[in-house]
Design goal:
- The chain is an alpha+beta fold and 139 residues long.
- The protein contains three helices and five strands.
- Strands 1-2-3-5-4 form a five-stranded antiparallel beta sheet, covered by helices on one side.
- Strand 4 and strand 5 form a beta hairpin.
- The radius of gyration is 16 Å and the shape is globular.
Length: 139
Amino acid sequence: MILDADVDNLGHVFNFIHEELERRDAPKSVYNPLDIAAEELFVNVCHYAYPDATPDNPGEVRIDVKYDDNPPLLAVTISDDGIPYNPLEKPDAATADEYAGIADIPIGGLGILMAKNSVDDMTYERVGDSNVLTFVKRW
C-alpha cells in the first residue's frame, strides 16, 4: 500500500493491517498492540520524514504486511524516502519513577517506547534513500 504521508490516512493503515489479521484468523489480542506501533510510526513519518512537504506534495509512505504461520506472526514494514531517521537509536523515554514529579519528566520519546513495547521485534535499516522500519507481532 502506498499512501500520502498525511495523518488523515492512518485509518487506511489500520484497515490494511486488520484485513490481513482477519484473513489469518489472528486473535483480537494482537490488534491493539499492532495499532499502537503502526500509529506511532506512521504518524512520525507524516510529521518528520519530509520537512519540505506541502499539501500538494506531502511525500509518501509505503506499508507492507507479511504473514508467517510457524509461529504465527505478522510483520509490518513502514518505509519512506524522507530524511534518514532511525527511531531505535533514540534513548527510551524517561519514566515518572525516575523523576521527582511529572512536571520534571522530559518531553519526547514516549510514543517510540510504547511502539517498541507493544510488539515482539522491531528493526530499522536505511536502504538506498529509504527508511525501512519493520515490526513483528507473534501469537
